[in-house]
Amino acid sequence: MTTGANKAPTTVGKTKFYQGEKKTQPLFCIEPGIPCQDAREQASELMGVVRDLTIAGVMDDNPQLIWASHYLSALAKALMDDAELGMTR
User: Is residue 18 part of a domain?
Assistant: First the structure.
């Protein structure tokens, strides 16, 4: 969200990641007020790690690495989605 004409947009804090069968309680959520550029940069870094973990998990037949990449990709998506919300306000 922007608070002034010269302020950079920030995350709005509305994006949550739900996990589990009933999806009644969020596993994590994005905090409001993070500069959108910072959130996008962090999401990009996370997606690089996701790529590496996915390749390693497939090559080594290691499901733990695949699950780790799954959760990290969900975090990266939440960051990107909330940054997008902040940039469109």
Answer: no
